[in-house]
Amino acid sequence: MASVRTRLDVDVRREQLLDAGVELFARRSWEEVSIDGIAAACGVSRGLLYHYFKGKREFYVASVERAVQRLHEEIEPELTLPPTAQLLTGLQRHFAGIEQHADAHTLLLGVAAADEEVAAIVARDREAFAQRVLAGMPGAGGSSPLARATARAWIGSVEAATRELIASDGDVTAEQLVAVLAESLVAALLAAARLDASIEVPPGIDGLAGGGIVEAIVASWSDDPPGERPGGAEQPVP
Amino acid sequence: MASVRTRLDVDVRREQLLDAGVELFARRSWEEVSIDGIAAACGVSRGLLYHYFKGKREFYVASVERAVQRLHEEIEPELTLPPTAQLLTGLQRHFAGIEQHADAHTLLLGVAAADEEVAAIVARDREAFAQRVLAGMPGAGGSSPLARATARAWIGSVEAATRELIASDGDVTAEQLVAVLAESLVAALLAAARLDASIEVPPGIDGLAGGGIVEAIVASWSDDPPGERPGGAEQPVP
DNA sequence: GAAGCTATTGGACTCTGATTCAATAGCTCC
DNA sequence: GGAGCTATTGAATCAGAGTCCAATAGCTTC
Fold first, then answer.
1. Domain identity same for A53 and A101
2. Residue contacts between A and B (CB atoms, under 8 Å)
3. Integer distance in angstroms from CA A38 to C1' D11?
4. A227 pLDDT exceeds 70?
5. Radius of gyration, CA atoms only, chain B
6. Quick check: B160 and A164 CB within 8 A?
7. Would B1 be classed as within a structural domain?
8. Which of A40, A160, B26, B215 has an alpha carbon 20 to 30 Å from B4's alpha carbon atom?
Protein backbone atom coordinates (compact mmCIF):
# COMPACT_ATOMS: atom_id res chain seq x y z
CA MET A 1 0.00 0.00 0.00
CA ALA A 2 2.19 2.77 1.27
CA SER A 3 4.95 2.48 -1.29
CA VAL A 4 7.17 4.57 0.94
CA ARG A 5 8.93 2.36 3.37
CA THR A 6 9.29 4.13 6.70
CA ARG A 7 11.76 3.02 9.25
CA LEU A 8 10.67 3.43 12.86
CA ASP A 9 12.14 2.80 16.25
CA VAL A 10 11.41 -0.72 17.40
CA ASP A 11 9.29 0.28 20.38
CA VAL A 12 7.29 2.80 18.43
CA ARG A 13 6.57 0.34 15.65
CA ARG A 14 5.62 -2.34 18.10
CA GLU A 15 3.12 -0.07 19.82
CA GLN A 16 1.73 1.00 16.48
CA LEU A 17 1.24 -2.57 15.38
CA LEU A 18 -0.42 -3.54 18.64
CA ASP A 19 -2.78 -0.59 18.57
CA ALA A 20 -3.81 -1.59 15.09
CA GLY A 21 -4.19 -5.15 16.36
CA VAL A 22 -6.56 -4.06 19.13
CA GLU A 23 -8.66 -2.20 16.61
CA LEU A 24 -8.69 -5.00 14.06
CA PHE A 25 -9.43 -7.83 16.43
CA ALA A 26 -12.13 -5.76 18.09
CA ARG A 27 -13.99 -5.57 14.78
CA ARG A 28 -13.33 -8.93 13.20
CA SER A 29 -12.88 -12.36 14.66
CA TRP A 30 -9.66 -14.35 14.65
CA GLU A 31 -10.37 -16.26 11.46
CA GLU A 32 -11.61 -13.22 9.64
CA VAL A 33 -8.37 -11.40 10.23
CA SER A 34 -5.50 -12.51 8.02
CA ILE A 35 -1.84 -11.73 8.41
CA ASP A 36 -1.94 -9.90 5.09
CA GLY A 37 -4.95 -7.96 6.26
CA ILE A 38 -3.19 -6.92 9.42
CA ALA A 39 -0.09 -5.95 7.48
CA ALA A 40 -2.12 -3.96 4.96
CA ALA A 41 -4.08 -2.20 7.69
CA CYS A 42 -0.83 -1.22 9.37
CA GLY A 43 0.65 -0.12 6.06
CA VAL A 44 3.45 -2.57 6.52
CA SER A 45 4.64 -5.78 4.95
CA ARG A 46 3.69 -9.28 5.98
CA GLY A 47 7.31 -9.99 6.82
CA LEU A 48 7.57 -7.19 9.33
CA LEU A 49 4.89 -8.67 11.47
CA TYR A 50 6.92 -11.84 11.68
CA HIS A 51 9.92 -9.79 12.65
CA TYR A 52 8.06 -8.42 15.66
CA PHE A 53 5.91 -11.41 16.56
CA LYS A 54 6.48 -15.12 16.20
CA GLY A 55 3.19 -15.52 14.37
CA LYS A 56 -0.42 -14.55 14.13
CA ARG A 57 -1.23 -16.11 17.42
CA GLU A 58 1.47 -14.31 19.36
CA PHE A 59 0.36 -11.09 17.76
CA TYR A 60 -3.19 -11.72 18.83
CA VAL A 61 -2.27 -12.50 22.40
CA ALA A 62 -0.05 -9.43 22.55
CA SER A 63 -2.94 -7.32 21.27
CA VAL A 64 -5.20 -8.64 24.00
CA GLU A 65 -2.53 -7.87 26.57
CA ARG A 66 -2.19 -4.38 25.22
CA ALA A 67 -5.93 -3.83 25.48
CA VAL A 68 -5.89 -4.88 29.11
CA GLN A 69 -2.93 -2.64 29.78
CA ARG A 70 -4.56 0.38 28.16
CA LEU A 71 -7.66 -0.03 30.28
CA HIS A 72 -5.62 -0.44 33.41
CA GLU A 73 -3.68 2.77 32.94
CA GLU A 74 -6.94 4.61 32.59
CA ILE A 75 -8.31 3.39 35.87
CA GLU A 76 -5.39 3.81 38.21
CA PRO A 77 -6.86 3.59 41.69
CA GLU A 78 -6.77 6.67 43.91
CA LEU A 79 -4.86 5.07 46.71
CA THR A 80 -5.69 7.89 49.06
CA LEU A 81 -9.38 7.03 49.08
CA PRO A 82 -10.94 4.34 51.24
CA PRO A 83 -11.41 1.04 49.36
CA THR A 84 -15.14 1.45 48.87
CA ALA A 85 -14.65 4.86 47.34
CA GLN A 86 -11.77 3.56 45.21
CA LEU A 87 -14.10 0.96 43.82
CA LEU A 88 -16.80 3.47 43.09
CA THR A 89 -14.55 5.97 41.37
CA GLY A 90 -12.96 3.11 39.46
CA LEU A 91 -16.38 2.03 38.28
CA GLN A 92 -17.30 5.56 37.30
CA ARG A 93 -14.10 6.02 35.35
CA HIS A 94 -14.55 2.66 33.74
CA PHE A 95 -17.91 3.65 32.35
CA ALA A 96 -16.83 7.18 31.59
CA GLY A 97 -14.00 5.91 29.43
CA ILE A 98 -16.02 3.41 27.47
CA GLU A 99 -16.42 5.36 24.26
CA GLN A 100 -12.81 6.39 24.25
CA HIS A 101 -11.62 2.82 24.69
CA ALA A 102 -14.45 1.09 22.91
CA ASP A 103 -12.03 -0.98 20.85
CA ALA A 104 -10.17 -2.34 23.83
CA HIS A 105 -13.41 -3.18 25.58
CA THR A 106 -14.93 -4.78 22.53
CA LEU A 107 -11.83 -6.89 22.03
CA LEU A 108 -11.77 -8.08 25.62
CA LEU A 109 -15.50 -8.75 25.74
CA GLY A 110 -15.34 -10.63 22.46
CA VAL A 111 -12.33 -12.76 23.22
CA ALA A 112 -12.76 -16.54 23.23
CA ALA A 113 -12.38 -17.87 26.73
CA ALA A 114 -11.79 -21.27 25.17
CA ASP A 115 -8.30 -20.09 24.33
CA GLU A 116 -6.15 -20.91 27.35
CA GLU A 117 -3.60 -18.20 27.00
CA VAL A 118 -6.07 -15.45 26.32
CA ALA A 119 -8.37 -16.72 29.04
CA ALA A 120 -5.46 -16.48 31.47
CA ILE A 121 -4.92 -12.82 30.63
CA VAL A 122 -8.57 -12.00 31.07
CA ALA A 123 -8.69 -14.03 34.27
CA ARG A 124 -5.74 -12.13 35.70
CA ASP A 125 -7.47 -8.88 34.86
CA ARG A 126 -10.68 -9.98 36.52
CA GLU A 127 -8.79 -11.19 39.53
CA ALA A 128 -7.21 -7.79 40.06
CA PHE A 129 -10.66 -6.29 39.85
CA ALA A 130 -12.05 -8.85 42.30
CA GLN A 131 -9.30 -8.02 44.77
CA ARG A 132 -10.33 -4.41 44.67
CA VAL A 133 -13.92 -5.35 45.24
CA LEU A 134 -12.96 -7.41 48.26
CA ALA A 135 -10.52 -4.84 49.57
CA GLY A 136 -13.42 -3.11 51.25
CA MET A 137 -14.11 -6.18 53.33
CA PRO A 138 -11.73 -6.69 56.22
CA GLY A 139 -11.42 -9.94 58.11
CA ALA A 140 -12.06 -13.15 56.26
CA GLY A 141 -13.96 -11.48 53.44
CA GLY A 142 -11.14 -11.76 50.96
CA SER A 143 -10.35 -15.36 51.63
CA SER A 144 -13.81 -16.85 51.77
CA PRO A 145 -14.62 -18.80 48.60
CA LEU A 146 -18.16 -17.52 48.62
CA ALA A 147 -17.02 -13.92 48.94
CA ARG A 148 -14.66 -14.37 46.01
CA ALA A 149 -17.31 -16.09 43.92
CA THR A 150 -19.74 -13.31 44.73
CA ALA A 151 -17.27 -10.66 43.73
CA ARG A 152 -16.49 -12.44 40.47
CA ALA A 153 -20.15 -12.95 39.71
CA TRP A 154 -20.73 -9.26 40.22
CA ILE A 155 -17.83 -8.49 37.89
CA GLY A 156 -19.71 -10.51 35.32
CA SER A 157 -22.55 -8.05 35.61
CA VAL A 158 -20.16 -5.14 35.20
CA GLU A 159 -18.91 -6.70 31.98
CA ALA A 160 -22.43 -7.27 30.72
CA ALA A 161 -23.34 -3.70 31.63
CA THR A 162 -20.32 -2.53 29.67
CA ARG A 163 -21.60 -4.45 26.66
CA GLU A 164 -24.98 -2.80 27.12
CA LEU A 165 -23.52 0.65 27.28
CA ILE A 166 -21.43 0.10 24.17
CA ALA A 167 -24.43 -1.28 22.30
CA SER A 168 -26.99 1.22 23.53
CA ASP A 169 -27.51 4.44 21.63
CA GLY A 170 -27.48 6.53 24.75
CA ASP A 171 -30.81 5.31 26.04
CA VAL A 172 -29.01 4.08 29.12
CA THR A 173 -26.46 6.22 30.92
CA ALA A 174 -23.27 5.34 32.70
CA GLU A 175 -24.59 6.96 35.89
CA GLN A 176 -27.66 4.76 35.91
CA LEU A 177 -25.62 1.63 35.46
CA VAL A 178 -23.15 2.61 38.17
CA ALA A 179 -26.02 3.14 40.61
CA VAL A 180 -27.69 -0.15 39.71
CA LEU A 181 -24.43 -2.08 39.92
CA ALA A 182 -23.42 -0.54 43.22
CA GLU A 183 -26.77 -1.42 44.74
CA SER A 184 -26.54 -4.91 43.40
CA LEU A 185 -23.01 -5.45 44.74
CA VAL A 186 -23.95 -4.39 48.23
CA ALA A 187 -26.99 -6.65 48.18
CA ALA A 188 -24.91 -9.56 46.89
CA LEU A 189 -22.19 -9.16 49.49
CA LEU A 190 -24.72 -8.84 52.30
CA ALA A 191 -26.46 -11.97 51.06
CA ALA A 192 -23.15 -13.81 50.93
CA ALA A 193 -22.30 -12.69 54.45
CA ARG A 194 -25.63 -14.00 55.67
CA LEU A 195 -24.80 -17.41 54.21
CA ASP A 196 -21.21 -17.62 55.31
CA ALA A 197 -20.43 -16.46 58.82
CA SER A 198 -16.75 -16.07 58.03
CA ILE A 199 -17.52 -13.09 55.81
CA GLU A 200 -17.41 -9.89 57.80
CA VAL A 201 -19.25 -6.92 56.41
CA PRO A 202 -17.91 -3.53 57.41
CA PRO A 203 -20.51 -1.77 59.57
CA GLY A 204 -20.84 1.12 57.14
CA ILE A 205 -21.96 -1.08 54.29
CA ASP A 206 -24.53 -2.81 56.39
CA GLY A 207 -26.74 0.23 56.61
CA LEU A 208 -26.23 1.16 52.98
CA ALA A 209 -28.49 -1.20 51.08
CA GLY A 210 -31.83 -0.02 49.84
CA GLY A 211 -31.09 3.04 47.76
CA GLY A 212 -28.72 5.94 47.48
CA ILE A 213 -25.55 3.92 47.85
CA VAL A 214 -23.62 5.99 45.38
CA GLU A 215 -24.65 9.21 47.08
CA ALA A 216 -23.82 7.80 50.48
CA ILE A 217 -20.34 6.80 49.42
CA VAL A 218 -19.66 10.04 47.64
CA ALA A 219 -20.83 12.01 50.65
CA SER A 220 -18.77 9.92 53.02
CA TRP A 221 -15.55 10.76 51.30
CA SER A 222 -16.15 14.33 50.22
CA ASP A 223 -17.09 15.34 53.77
CA ASP A 224 -13.82 13.98 54.79
CA PRO A 225 -11.10 14.56 52.26
CA PRO A 226 -8.46 11.84 52.20
CA GLY A 227 -5.56 14.19 52.84
CA GLU A 228 -6.96 15.20 56.19
CA ARG A 229 -7.65 11.74 57.45
CA PRO A 230 -4.63 9.96 58.88
CA GLY A 231 -4.40 6.39 57.69
CA GLY A 232 -7.54 6.88 55.72
CA ALA A 233 -6.25 4.95 52.78
CA GLU A 234 -7.02 1.61 54.28
CA GLN A 235 -10.23 2.46 56.04
CA PRO A 236 -13.59 1.29 54.80
CA VAL A 237 -16.41 3.76 54.55
CA PRO A 238 -17.46 4.56 58.12
CA MET B 1 -9.39 -45.36 13.62
CA ALA B 2 -12.35 -47.53 14.36
CA SER B 3 -11.82 -49.99 11.56
CA VAL B 4 -15.42 -51.11 11.88
CA ARG B 5 -17.58 -48.87 9.80
CA THR B 6 -21.02 -48.42 11.36
CA ARG B 7 -23.93 -47.23 9.39
CA LEU B 8 -26.39 -45.06 11.27
CA ASP B 9 -29.61 -43.27 10.57
CA VAL B 10 -28.95 -39.73 9.32
CA ASP B 11 -30.52 -38.01 12.31
CA VAL B 12 -28.79 -40.20 14.81
CA ARG B 13 -25.40 -39.67 13.21
CA ARG B 14 -25.93 -35.96 13.04
CA GLU B 15 -26.72 -35.79 16.73
CA GLN B 16 -23.74 -37.96 17.52
CA LEU B 17 -21.42 -35.70 15.55
CA LEU B 18 -22.80 -32.59 17.18
CA ASP B 19 -22.48 -34.03 20.65
CA ALA B 20 -18.89 -34.83 19.90
CA GLY B 21 -18.51 -31.30 18.57
CA VAL B 22 -19.82 -29.79 21.80
CA GLU B 23 -17.33 -31.84 23.76
CA LEU B 24 -14.39 -31.08 21.48
CA PHE B 25 -14.96 -27.37 21.17
CA ALA B 26 -15.56 -27.13 24.92
CA ARG B 27 -12.02 -28.41 25.52
CA ARG B 28 -10.03 -26.94 22.66
CA SER B 29 -10.31 -23.67 20.84
CA TRP B 30 -11.32 -23.26 17.21
CA GLU B 31 -7.79 -23.21 15.82
CA GLU B 32 -6.67 -26.13 17.90
CA VAL B 33 -9.35 -28.33 16.45
CA SER B 34 -8.73 -29.61 12.92
CA ILE B 35 -11.23 -31.26 10.64
CA ASP B 36 -9.20 -34.44 10.71
CA GLY B 37 -9.07 -34.22 14.47
CA ILE B 38 -12.81 -33.91 14.68
CA ALA B 39 -13.28 -36.83 12.35
CA ALA B 40 -10.86 -38.97 14.32
CA ALA B 41 -12.49 -38.05 17.63
CA CYS B 42 -15.87 -39.03 16.23
CA GLY B 43 -14.43 -42.24 14.86
CA VAL B 44 -15.53 -41.21 11.42
CA SER B 45 -13.92 -40.14 8.18
CA ARG B 46 -13.24 -36.59 7.06
CA GLY B 47 -15.53 -37.10 4.12
CA LEU B 48 -18.48 -37.88 6.31
CA LEU B 49 -18.23 -34.61 8.14
CA TYR B 50 -18.43 -32.82 4.82
CA HIS B 51 -21.40 -34.94 3.96
CA TYR B 52 -23.24 -33.62 6.99
CA PHE B 53 -21.86 -30.10 7.22
CA LYS B 54 -20.62 -27.65 4.65
CA GLY B 55 -17.37 -27.17 6.49
CA LYS B 56 -15.59 -26.70 9.77
CA ARG B 57 -17.32 -23.44 10.46
CA GLU B 58 -20.82 -24.71 9.89
CA PHE B 59 -20.03 -27.65 12.10
CA TYR B 60 -18.81 -25.33 14.83
CA VAL B 61 -21.85 -23.09 14.67
CA ALA B 62 -24.13 -26.12 14.68
CA SER B 63 -22.33 -27.42 17.75
CA VAL B 64 -22.88 -24.15 19.55
CA GLU B 65 -26.54 -24.25 18.61
CA ARG B 66 -26.80 -27.77 19.90
CA ALA B 67 -25.26 -26.74 23.21
CA VAL B 68 -27.82 -23.99 23.60
CA GLN B 69 -30.61 -26.35 22.70
CA ARG B 70 -29.49 -28.97 25.20
CA LEU B 71 -29.45 -26.44 27.99
CA HIS B 72 -32.86 -25.14 27.02
CA GLU B 73 -34.51 -28.54 27.12
CA GLU B 74 -33.18 -28.99 30.61
CA ILE B 75 -34.71 -25.80 31.89
CA GLU B 76 -38.19 -25.88 30.44
CA PRO B 77 -40.16 -23.31 32.42
CA GLU B 78 -43.00 -24.50 34.63
CA LEU B 79 -45.65 -22.40 33.00
CA THR B 80 -48.05 -23.01 35.84
CA LEU B 81 -45.92 -21.09 38.30
CA PRO B 82 -45.94 -17.31 38.66
CA PRO B 83 -43.10 -15.63 36.72
CA THR B 84 -40.97 -14.93 39.77
CA ALA B 85 -41.14 -18.55 40.81
CA GLN B 86 -40.47 -19.68 37.24
CA LEU B 87 -37.31 -17.65 37.29
CA LEU B 88 -36.21 -19.05 40.60
CA THR B 89 -36.82 -22.68 39.70
CA GLY B 90 -35.14 -22.06 36.38
CA LEU B 91 -32.11 -20.70 38.16
CA GLN B 92 -32.05 -23.64 40.54
CA ARG B 93 -32.27 -26.14 37.72
CA HIS B 94 -29.64 -24.29 35.79
CA PHE B 95 -27.16 -24.65 38.63
CA ALA B 96 -28.29 -28.14 39.49
CA GLY B 97 -27.57 -29.30 35.96
CA ILE B 98 -24.15 -27.74 35.66
CA GLU B 99 -22.04 -30.83 36.16
CA GLN B 100 -24.20 -32.87 33.87
CA HIS B 101 -23.94 -30.31 31.09
CA ALA B 102 -20.52 -28.98 31.89
CA ASP B 103 -19.41 -29.34 28.27
CA ALA B 104 -22.27 -27.32 26.88
CA HIS B 105 -21.73 -24.61 29.47
CA THR B 106 -18.00 -24.52 28.93
CA LEU B 107 -18.51 -24.24 25.20
CA LEU B 108 -20.99 -21.41 25.50
CA LEU B 109 -18.96 -19.54 28.09
CA GLY B 110 -15.83 -19.92 26.01
CA VAL B 111 -17.27 -18.91 22.69
CA ALA B 112 -15.82 -15.82 21.01
CA ALA B 113 -18.34 -13.03 20.99
CA ALA B 114 -16.29 -11.45 18.21
CA ASP B 115 -17.75 -14.03 15.88
CA GLU B 116 -20.97 -12.53 14.55
CA GLU B 117 -22.90 -15.69 13.90
CA VAL B 118 -22.02 -17.33 17.16
CA ALA B 119 -22.57 -14.11 19.06
CA ALA B 120 -26.07 -13.96 17.58
CA ILE B 121 -26.88 -17.41 18.91
CA VAL B 122 -25.64 -16.54 22.36
CA ALA B 123 -27.43 -13.20 22.23
CA ARG B 124 -30.71 -14.89 21.33
CA ASP B 125 -30.26 -17.25 24.23
CA ARG B 126 -29.56 -14.39 26.63
CA GLU B 127 -32.50 -12.47 25.30
CA ALA B 128 -34.88 -15.31 26.04
CA PHE B 129 -33.46 -15.40 29.53
CA ALA B 130 -33.84 -11.63 29.90
CA GLN B 131 -37.48 -11.86 28.86
CA ARG B 132 -38.09 -14.34 31.61
CA VAL B 133 -36.40 -12.08 34.10
CA LEU B 134 -38.60 -9.18 33.04
CA ALA B 135 -41.74 -11.26 32.85
CA GLY B 136 -42.17 -10.71 36.56
CA MET B 137 -42.45 -7.01 35.98
CA PRO B 138 -45.78 -5.85 34.62
CA GLY B 139 -46.33 -2.43 33.12
CA ALA B 140 -43.47 -0.74 31.38
CA GLY B 141 -40.83 -2.89 33.03
CA GLY B 142 -40.18 -4.96 29.97
CA SER B 143 -39.90 -2.12 27.56
CA SER B 144 -37.76 0.28 29.55
CA PRO B 145 -34.17 0.35 28.27
CA LEU B 146 -32.84 0.57 31.79
CA ALA B 147 -34.89 -2.41 32.91
CA ARG B 148 -33.59 -4.46 30.01
CA ALA B 149 -30.02 -3.37 30.60
CA THR B 150 -30.37 -4.24 34.26
CA ALA B 151 -31.73 -7.67 33.45
CA ARG B 152 -28.92 -8.34 30.98
CA ALA B 153 -26.30 -7.12 33.39
CA TRP B 154 -27.65 -9.49 35.99
CA ILE B 155 -27.53 -12.32 33.47
CA GLY B 156 -23.86 -11.52 33.16
CA SER B 157 -23.48 -12.30 36.83
CA VAL B 158 -25.35 -15.57 36.39
CA GLU B 159 -22.90 -16.56 33.68
CA ALA B 160 -19.94 -15.59 35.81
CA ALA B 161 -21.39 -17.54 38.72
CA THR B 162 -21.75 -20.53 36.42
CA ARG B 163 -18.07 -20.25 35.57
CA GLU B 164 -17.29 -20.12 39.27
CA LEU B 165 -19.30 -23.18 40.04
CA ILE B 166 -17.70 -25.16 37.23
CA ALA B 167 -14.25 -24.10 38.33
CA SER B 168 -14.77 -24.47 42.06
CA ASP B 169 -14.10 -27.79 43.70
CA GLY B 170 -17.27 -27.71 45.67
CA ASP B 171 -16.22 -24.95 48.01
CA VAL B 172 -19.16 -22.95 46.76
CA THR B 173 -22.60 -24.49 46.41
CA ALA B 174 -25.33 -23.93 43.89
CA GLU B 175 -27.73 -23.00 46.68
CA GLN B 176 -25.46 -20.25 47.93
CA LEU B 177 -25.08 -18.79 44.49
CA VAL B 178 -28.80 -18.90 43.81
CA ALA B 179 -29.48 -17.01 47.02
CA VAL B 180 -26.82 -14.41 46.33
CA LEU B 181 -27.97 -13.92 42.75
CA ALA B 182 -31.63 -13.65 43.69
CA GLU B 183 -30.85 -11.01 46.27
CA SER B 184 -28.73 -9.14 43.83
CA LEU B 185 -31.38 -9.20 41.11
CA VAL B 186 -34.05 -7.79 43.37
CA ALA B 187 -31.72 -5.04 44.55
CA ALA B 188 -30.75 -4.21 40.97
CA LEU B 189 -34.32 -4.03 39.75
CA LEU B 190 -35.38 -1.89 42.69
CA ALA B 191 -32.47 0.43 42.04
CA ALA B 192 -33.39 0.63 38.37
CA ALA B 193 -37.01 1.42 39.27
CA ARG B 194 -35.84 4.20 41.53
CA LEU B 195 -33.94 5.74 38.63
CA ASP B 196 -36.58 5.29 35.97
CA ALA B 197 -40.14 6.04 36.95
CA SER B 198 -41.51 4.07 34.02
CA ILE B 199 -40.35 0.83 35.63
CA GLU B 200 -43.08 -0.60 37.83
CA VAL B 201 -42.05 -3.00 40.51
CA PRO B 202 -44.67 -5.53 41.55
CA PRO B 203 -45.68 -4.82 45.15
CA GLY B 204 -44.57 -8.25 46.33
CA ILE B 205 -40.99 -7.73 45.26
CA ASP B 206 -40.78 -4.39 46.95
CA GLY B 207 -40.85 -5.87 50.40
CA LEU B 208 -38.54 -8.72 49.50
CA ALA B 209 -35.09 -7.18 49.50
CA GLY B 210 -32.82 -7.63 52.47
CA GLY B 211 -32.59 -11.35 53.01
CA GLY B 212 -34.50 -14.55 52.58
CA ILE B 213 -35.72 -13.87 49.07
CA VAL B 214 -35.44 -17.45 48.00
CA GLU B 215 -37.34 -18.64 51.04
CA ALA B 216 -39.98 -15.99 50.53
CA ILE B 217 -40.57 -16.98 46.93
CA VAL B 218 -40.59 -20.67 47.67
CA ALA B 219 -43.05 -20.14 50.51
CA SER B 220 -45.26 -17.96 48.37
CA TRP B 221 -45.83 -20.63 45.81
CA SER B 222 -45.85 -23.76 47.93
CA ASP B 223 -48.50 -22.31 50.21
CA ASP B 224 -50.60 -21.81 47.19
CA PRO B 225 -50.20 -24.57 44.63
CA PRO B 226 -50.57 -23.37 41.05
CA GLY B 227 -53.32 -25.78 40.13
CA GLU B 228 -55.65 -24.32 42.69
CA ARG B 229 -55.21 -20.71 41.76
CA PRO B 230 -57.26 -19.59 38.76
CA GLY B 231 -55.20 -17.55 36.33
CA GLY B 232 -52.26 -17.92 38.63
CA ALA B 233 -49.85 -18.52 35.81
CA GLU B 234 -49.50 -14.87 34.98
CA GLN B 235 -49.53 -13.47 38.49
CA PRO B 236 -46.46 -12.13 40.14
CA VAL B 237 -45.63 -13.22 43.62
CA PRO B 238 -48.18 -11.58 45.89
C1' DG C 1 -28.72 -65.27 0.77
C1' DA C 2 -29.06 -61.99 -3.08
C1' DA C 3 -30.26 -57.29 -4.51
C1' DG C 4 -30.75 -52.62 -3.73
C1' DC C 5 -30.27 -48.55 -1.32
C1' DT C 6 -27.40 -45.24 0.57
C1' DA C 7 -24.22 -44.23 4.45
C1' DT C 8 -19.44 -44.15 4.63
C1' DT C 9 -14.72 -44.15 3.18
C1' DG C 10 -10.19 -42.35 1.70
C1' DG C 11 -7.20 -40.54 -1.50
C1' DA C 12 -6.03 -37.06 -4.83
C1' DC C 13 -6.63 -32.41 -5.74
C1' DT C 14 -7.05 -27.21 -5.10
C1' DC C 15 -6.67 -23.08 -2.69
C1' DT C 16 -6.19 -19.91 0.94
C1' DG C 17 -3.40 -18.14 4.24
C1' DA C 18 0.54 -18.79 7.64
C1' DT C 19 5.53 -18.94 7.88
C1' DT C 20 10.52 -18.40 6.28
C1' DC C 21 14.51 -15.99 4.84
C1' DA C 22 17.85 -13.86 1.78
C1' DA C 23 17.85 -9.43 -0.30
C1' DT C 24 16.85 -4.43 0.11
C1' DA C 25 17.00 0.21 1.77
C1' DG C 26 16.03 3.92 5.55
C1' DC C 27 18.36 6.18 9.14
C1' DT C 28 22.48 7.76 11.76
C1' DC C 29 27.05 8.88 12.59
C1' DC C 30 31.42 9.93 11.09
C1' DG D 1 28.48 11.40 1.11
C1' DG D 2 29.88 6.84 2.43
C1' DA D 3 29.74 2.98 5.84
C1' DG D 4 27.29 0.38 8.94
C1' DC D 5 23.48 -1.07 11.35
C1' DT D 6 19.16 -3.06 11.29
C1' DA D 7 14.27 -2.23 10.02
C1' DT D 8 11.78 -3.75 6.26
C1' DT D 9 10.51 -6.24 2.16
C1' DG D 10 8.40 -9.87 -0.99
C1' DA D 11 8.96 -14.08 -3.37
C1' DA D 12 9.21 -18.91 -2.10
C1' DT D 13 7.54 -22.48 0.84
C1' DC D 14 4.46 -25.14 3.65
C1' DA D 15 0.27 -26.63 6.22
C1' DG D 16 -4.06 -27.65 6.43
C1' DA D 17 -8.94 -26.45 5.25
C1' DG D 18 -12.12 -27.39 1.75
C1' DT D 19 -13.62 -30.27 -2.44
C1' DC D 20 -14.72 -34.07 -5.23
C1' DC D 21 -15.88 -38.63 -6.28
C1' DA D 22 -15.42 -43.46 -7.34
C1' DA D 23 -15.16 -47.40 -4.47
C1' DT D 24 -16.82 -49.89 -0.40
C1' DA D 25 -19.92 -52.04 2.71
C1' DG D 26 -23.79 -51.90 6.41
C1' DC D 27 -28.62 -52.52 6.70
C1' DT D 28 -33.11 -53.84 4.91
C1' DT D 29 -36.21 -56.36 2.20
C1' DC D 30 -37.61 -59.92 -0.40
1. no
2. 191
3. 19
4. no
5. 21
6. no
7. no
8. B26
For D20, nearest residue by CA–C1' is B47
CB-nearest to B150 from A150, A155, A180 is A180
Q: Which of B157, B186, B196 sits opposite A154 (nearest CB)?
A: B157
pLDDT band for position B205 (50/70/90)? confident
By CA distance, what is A106's nearest residue in B?
B114
AA letter at A117: E
pLDDT at A93 over 90: yes
What would the pLDDT profile of A175-189 be if each residue is shown by its tens digit?
999 999 999 999 999
Based on the domain organization, do A185 and A93 belong to the same domain?
yes
Q: Which nucleotides of D are covered by protein (CB under 7 A)?
A: 6-11, 16-22, 25-27
The phi and psi torsions of B34 (rounded to 5 degrees) equal -105, 155
Alpha helix ranges (H) inside chain B: 10-27, 35-42, 46-52, 56-74, 83-96, 102-110, 116-135, 145-167, 174-195, 203-206, 213-222
Assign residue A52 the CATH number of its domain. 1.10.10.60
Closest CA to B189 of B48, B87, B117, B93: B87
Task: Provide the pLDDT for residue A228.
Answer: 47
Note the pLDDT of residue A231. 42
Q: Could you give the CA distance from residue A169 to residue A165 in angstroms, rounded to a whole number?
A: 8
d(CA A20, CA A102): 13
